[in-house]
Amino acid sequence: MKDNKKLKEQILRSSGVNVLKCMRCGKCSATCPSYDEMEYHPHQFVNMIDNGEIEPLLKSKSIYKCLTCFACVERCPRNVKPAYLVEAVRLAVIREKGENHLHPDDIPELLDEDLPQQAIVTAFRKYAK
Amino acid sequence: MQKIGVFVCHCGTNIAATVDVQKVAQTLKNEPGVVFSTDYQYMCSESGQDIIKNAIAEYKLTGVVICSCSPRMHEATFRRAAEKAGLNPYMVEIANIREQCSWIHKEMQTATEKAVILGRAAIAKVHLNAPLTAGESPVTKRALVIGGGIAGIQTALDIADAGFNVDIVEKKPTIGGKMAQIDKTFPTLDCAACILTPKMVDCAQNDKINIYAYSEVEDISGFVGNFSVKIRKKARYVDETKCTGCGLCTEKCPQKNVPNEFNLGFDNRRAIYIPFAQAVPKKATIDPDYCTMLKTGKCGVCSKLCTAGAIDYKQKDQIIEEKYGAIIVATGFEPIKVDKYDEFAYSQSKDVVTSLELERLMNAAGPTKGTLLRPSDGTHPHTIVFVQCVGSRCEDEKGKPYCSKVCCMYTAKHAMLIREKYPDTEVYVFYIDVRTPGKNFDEFYRRAVEQYGVHYIKGMVGKVMPRADGKLEVRASDLLLGKQLHIDADMVVLAVAIEPDKTARPLATMLTASMDTNDFFTEAHPKLRPVESPTAGIFLSGMCQGPKDIPETVAQASAAAAKAIGLLCKDKLTCNPCVAHSDEMMCNGCSLCANVCPYGAITYVDKEFRMPNRTTAIRRVSSVNPAVCQGCGACTVACPSGAMDLSGFSNRQIMSEVDAICK
After folding, report:
1. How far is CA B349 from the centre of its chain?
2. How far apart are CA B198 and CA B194, in angstroms?
């Protein structure tokens, strides 16, 4: 539990999200294009991280199914930014592993030049294994 | 030398739990001029006041210092007590050792030290206090109601009932406001027009009420009991005294393509129009933006038709000046603009409507004569999705942070009415919370679910996509089932947040009445003075103070009327003697004080002064109107030559307080 608290703090800090702002409206999940692919949905990320239930998220494939399209960030009426949390959980997994398996030199050929910057960084972490 | 009495209040444990009150009383006894010092559990109680009165008599006190709560709370109480004992009420000073001391400190030692210092400052001030006498000002026995919606109407009727004259200023050509546009009212489902229009007629027929429709407040000056208001009566281009409201002109005017604002643009009206059949006053108005005659000088159809000869193309705006004792603000609300919410496709599809638009689409007097049809193709909708909290409870820049309060109930009403009239229509309501506090409100909402089979779904709509086949694809979450829903809807209704009317902010500036960050008028006390503005003589009625439904609005309107009547009943008002005055010998005529004065109390006069060697000179000096001055002290701070001073808060008094604190 103590570890969990530390992990929660780390995720909140690295995402910069205040989960307490959420009013449980579910607009983030209503708008998520990867909804059917995901075991845990954007609103559940907010709720579960708030409750300290982070282990299931770390193990879930959902974190790799998020497209980082930011629709949830755009539509959230409370400025909660669920996609930032998904990203922070991904980051936590990578940090646990302690290394990146994808070398920066490999990235250019994998890239589509229309990709936004954030998606490139995300892809780097997502496919880093 | 003053003979000062010090009275330290325990305020139960509010002060005594953190401040050693006995020690404060003992320490302050040693201050110069203090001849009596004591402490008591509740100074404001009758026995507490008796202690003060007895001490004034026994020790022949010339000044009183009370260490207690904020002067906003009980200064008037203690001044009255002192006056009863024969002391000038302005010889009483309050040291605030509750809000500014005991409530914010935790340690007894520091709190006690601070209480002593605050007491010492008050004593230092009393030494320089001089008796002040309050003047009196007369009260104009006439009230002004700004806004002619249900709030303004109710307030005006109640004030007129008490026998006072009332003027209603309404910017639209008719009174009635938003309620006139509403179809049915919750939770009883009676028709809005059936309960509103009789009240509108009452206003028109009451000889104490004068309606300035199609008029706006242009300027307000003066103060409580003596407001002077300029009202701009906009040109209708129709002589109101002649127009009979027959409506012939509104049928024959050749300019047919003017969006009808009363039906929120769903149909068109003519350039000369009467907003709706029950309008009060029922007089035609020419819209100068569309009238061909006014724009090009060629037409004149209405003028030829009008048997009463009421059309007057040369009519000009009229400025009316009137004096009032009280002003009641009832400026109401507007739904916010939802164009910025791209995800709901409001600007892309005609079938996405706001709730107020739905009211018109369901109203028997509306563009569809009460048959609910899709605005895009006029077909009957079979699936309707309601979205709650659109722009309400939003932290983003597009919305409002507050709950708009009325949406849950009117959506339940809409859903119920649709299911009743068209049982083949499926109705979905997406909610975050259903908020139904109020008499018979939750029962009403439950009826929508249990009796009418409205589908209430906990979750929010994320996106509305208009499709080529005319359907609206709604993507939403069902949080209880843990599903993302895809619904093909025929219509989407947005429960849009409400915001104060745009005219409220400039009006607040004219009234020097305070507003909150959302442009709602602030009340003098959120619990105990909810219908008064902190600015004396200004009262608040209806939505201009915060979101509320019709029953609450009417209750507040009557409350505001009662407060205004209380003021109008008085023949004279006691003025505040703590007002600014200028030392003419020191004034250099720079005008800084006049520029900073928020009340317009300072004017400049040319005055003859005796100069050395028996000569005279004319100098420009400032002069304060004590009846208008509110004693805010802005001028005393601005004055570079130190000529401005405030009675009761003179520069010397303030400095001696500072010295006492820094000692």
Report:
1. 36
2. 7
Contact of B544 with B552, CB cutoff 8 Å: no
Q: Which two tokens stand for residue B246?
A: 């027959």
> Averaged over B577-599, what is the pLDDT?
90
pLDDT, tens digit (0-9, with 9 covering 90-100), for B230-259: 999 999 999 999 999 999 999 999 999 999
CA closest to A34 among chain B residues: B484
How far is the C-alpha of B606 from the C-alpha of B435, rounded, in Å? 63
Task: Supply B474's token pair.
Answer: 């709604």
For chain A, helix (H) and strand (E) counts, in that order, are: 9, 0
Q: Scanning the structure block, which residue is given the tokens 């942070």?
A: B401
Q: Facing residues of B475 across strands? A: B463, B486
The answer, yes or no, to whether residue B33 has pLDDT greater than 80, is yes
ipTM of the complex as predicted: 0.79
Q: For residues B624, B626, B632 and B633, what is the CA-based torsion angle, rounded to 10 degrees?
A: 40
Chain A contacts to B (CB-CB under 8 A):
21, 23-32, 35-36, 41, 43, 71, 75-79
Q: Is the peptide bond before B375 cis (omega within 30 degrees of 0)?
A: no
Tens digits of per-residue pLDDT, A31-47? 999 999 999 999 999 99
Q: Alpha-carbon distance B399 to B494, whole Å?
A: 13
Q: Report CA dihedral (B625, B631, B637, B642) to the nearest 10 degrees.
A: 50
CB of B115 closer than 8 Å to CB of B24: yes
Cβ partners under 8 Å of residue A109, min gap 6? none
User: Look-up: residue for tokens 């109008």?
Assistant: B568
Read off the DSSP letter of residue A3. H
Tokens of B491: 């219509």
Amino acid identity at B267: D
* Closest by CA position to A26, among listed B431, B338, B345: B431
CB spacing of B462 vs A71 below 8 angstroms? yes
Rg (CA), chain B: 31
The answer to whether residues B523 and B378 touch, using CB atoms and an 8 Å cutoff, is: no
Chain segment B322-339, per-residue pLDDT in tens: 999 999 999 999 999 998
Q: How far apart are CA B312 and CA B519, in angstroms?
A: 38
Structure pTM? 0.84
Are the beta carbons of B432 and A79 separated by less than 8 Å? no
pLDDT at A129: 46
